[in-house]
Amino acid sequence: MLIKKLREMLDARQISAWELAQAYLARIEKRDPELGAYLHVSADVAKAMAGEAQRRIDAGGQGALTGIPVGLKDILCTSDMPTTCASRMLEGYRPPYDATVVGRLRAQGAVFLGKLNMDEFAMGSTTRNSAYKPAKNPFDPNRVPGGSSGGSAAAVAASLCAAALGSDTGGSIRQPASFCGVTGHRPTYGLVSRYGCVAFASSLDQVGPLAASASDCAAVLDAICGPDPHDQTTSARGRAAPAGGRPGTGQWPGAGMGARMGESLKGKRLGIIAELMGAEVEPDVLRCVEEAAKWYESAGATVKRVSLPMLRHAVPAYYLISSAEASANLSRFDGVRYGRRAGGAASYGELIAKSRAEGFGREVKRRILLGTYALCSGYYDAYYKRAVHLAGIVRAQYDGAFADCDALLSPVSPTAAFEAGKVPDDPAQVYVADICTVSASLAGLPSISTPCGYTAGGMPVGLMITGRRWDDPLVLALADAFERDFERRDPAGFGAGDEADAGAAGAIKWGE
To answer: Catalytic: 73?
Structure first.
């Protein structure tokens, strides 16, 4: 509950918002060169926002996030910082407006430390597809932090921000959270506005929090969720009645998304997804997830195996749908309307071809080609339309499972974080590793990754908890209950014993 601790310190005047921001900026300067979590550090912006936050605190008008230092995935538009999506296509681009979630955090008085590294246009699961530099895992810099929100997960794990925003299309919050030993929540589709989040696959993209705990995720989610006139897919459904304060203000402890925390687990019905507990999952990962399921049983919940046989089709359905939507969304980056413009073109067609060839990386080009092929005349029914039909069947099977279960348990990934030098050359092998996460995305369900154990080599393993649509408060509460009894480890050299260097910020124990 790092945010709650920082909130108490700020409100008790044990530290000022400016001192807190300065402490995090100093830590980023010292630690981030090793990790590559940030693409852009906004020291001037952070200090100005911290000064304004302190004035709010002094006036007694603070909320849960006032003065709290956060990082933003570089897919979110920010009017006072660059937004590149880790792509050469948008190098140097500064949007004229804020994403809705950015504006809502700004209204809360949160302090923006900078923009976080990612796979280019959110396409990847390693953060090695960044056009600028790879991000590394704080538990082992020789391993990947996951992706595409790898910078967000690494920054939270290494205490380079108190919380971060990421985006999740097929697992891009949950998988890096698992790899880096932090908590990451993908909200119900429609709970959080996508306005100002550069589109990858519009029917799947969701913005969500990564933080040190489910409680912290709830505080961030409560600040950013809710309907938005700029995004017609958003809804007011799913908001729990707050325990004090106005909904959406994020005032502690009245965050609506945390309203179910502390409920007894007795009577809760949990299902383990059998299809995600097979031989393709590493033994250490299976062990950790099974032990977590036993913990829930010991706490009073009933746990049983459930079968969702259509999940075996989830990966191909996801990659057809997401690639088709990416092909359409990224067509705007043509060097004329948006994006990098190549020089030396002799014709309009050559200008577009050269601009896109120079601006997009290999993985982005691959998915655009796959999506364009699937949408071509003669192939639309055979590929895209069939994939959408399969997604509907996956949703129906989840609905069937929720008739007997309140939430479902599974691994987040078949493996723990793998070595950067062992990323398969065959993209199909990388895509198959998304088997645990993509089905919840296809169904639009809330899904969280929370640390549940460690491999024999000390790498974190994440437990995924998936709930019914709009049941985000229950999903967060189930993760919170487990976390309260779980001994989380901090990455060596980045943990709780590593204090800030000077001043009042020396009271902070990083990682606590």
So the answer is: yes
